[in-house]
Amino acid sequence: MHLLIVFEDLEIGYVWILDDGPGTLREGGRRKEPLWIVFAVSGTINLNSYLSVSSYKTIDGRGQRIKLTGKGIRLKECEHIIICNLEFEGGRGHDVDGIQIKPKSRHIWIDRCSLRDYDDGLIDITRQSTDITVSRCYFAQHDKTMLIGADPSHVEDRCIRVTIHHCFFDGTRQRQPRLRFGKVHLYNNYTRNWGIYAVCASVEAQVFSQCNIYEAGVKKKTFEYYSEKAADKEEARTGLVRSENDLFLNGAQPSLMTGASEECVFHPSEHYPTWTVEPPSETLKQIMQICTGWQSLSRPSDHGVPK
Questions:
Q1: Residue of 175, 178, 242, 299 marked catalytic
Q2: For the chain, where are the alpha helices, taking DSSP H only?
Q3: CB under 8 Å to 98, separation ≥6 — which residues?
Q4: For 5, 25, 123, 181, which has the most beta carbons within 10 A of its beta carbon?
Q5: 8 A C-beta contact, residue 41 and residue 63
Q6: Per the omega criterion (within 30 degrees of 0), is the bond before 177 cis?
Q7: What is the pLDDT of residues 132-158, one digit of tens each?
C-alpha cells in the first residue's frame, strides 16, 4: 500500500514534447527495460490515444512543467511504476481517465500530480490492481474523481489495497474515492465542497479514514454507503468506514454506522509497520492548499540524474 521504490542502475531517458516517435514519452513508456524518464523541455503533450507504460518505469516531471491532455496514461498488467509531478487536464472520449490502472497492476506510486477535467475518472484503480499509493496530488474541476473497484461482478477486486494521503480534493463532486471490495487507507487528506458525498463505501469495501479534514459546502453528508450484491453472494451488502480523529468542518456530517461495524474494518498496521500522521488542523489545511499537485521542483542530482 504505502511504498517507496528506488530503481538502481537505471538507464536515464530524456524525452521530448511530442505524442510519438523516437525520444518521446510514448516511446520510453513502451520500452521493456527499466527506465527513469525525465523531460528535456517543458510543454504540453497532446495524446491521441492512451499512453501505455510497461513495468519498472519512473516518469519524473521534476525540473520541467509537463501537461498531458487529450487522453491519459494506462497502466496495464505492469508493476513498479512511479508517476511524479505531472499535470493531467482535458481528457476527452468514452472511458478516458487521467490515470487508468487495470488489470492486475501493482506496486505503483502516483505522487504530486495535478488532475482535472477528464470525461471519465481522474484516477481509476480496478481489475485486481493493488498495492498502490496516491500522495500529495491535487484534484479539481471534476465529477467522478476516483473509482477503486469497478463493478460488483469483479469479485477478484477483494485483493485491492490502496493508500491515499496528503491529497487535496478541491470541490470535486464525488468519489474521493468510491470503493468496492478492497481496502483503502485515507489519511491527512483535505476534501472540501463536494457535490454529493466525500467518500463512498460499497459492496464489502473497507475504508480506514484517519486524521483527514472534511469541509462541507452545500452538501453535508461525508460518508455514503451503497448496497450492491457481489456476483458470488446471495445478498446485497454495503461497505464500511472507520473514522479515527477526522476533522469535520462547516457542518459536515460523518454519517458513520454505529455498533460493531467499525470493528470489521482493517487496521493499516496489518499491512505496513509505520506511517507518519499529522493532526488535522488549520495549519495542515493551509499546507495542503499550496503543497499538493504539480510543483516547481528541481530534479535531484543523485543516481546520475543532472538537474
A1: 175
A2: 25-30, 282-290
A3: 68, 72, 73, 88, 91, 115, 118, 121, 122, 123
A4: 123
A5: no
A6: yes
A7: 999 999 999 999 999 999 999 999 999
Residue count of the chain, please give it: 307
Ramachandran assignment for 186, one of left (phi > 0), alpha (psi -120 to 50 degrees), beta (any other): beta
Indicate if 136 belongs to the active site.
Answer: no
Nine-digit cell string for 254: 460523518
- Domain 143-295 CATH assignment equals 3.30.565.10: no
In this predicted model, what pLDDT tens digit does every residue of 25-51 receive, in sequence order? 999 999 999 999 999 889 999 999 999
Cell of 162: 490502496
Contact 64, 39 (CB under 8 A): yes
Instruction: Note whether 51 and 26 are within 8 A (CB).
Output: yes
Which phi-psi region, left, alpha or beta, contains residue 93 (left: φ > 0; alpha: ψ -120 to 50)? Answer: left
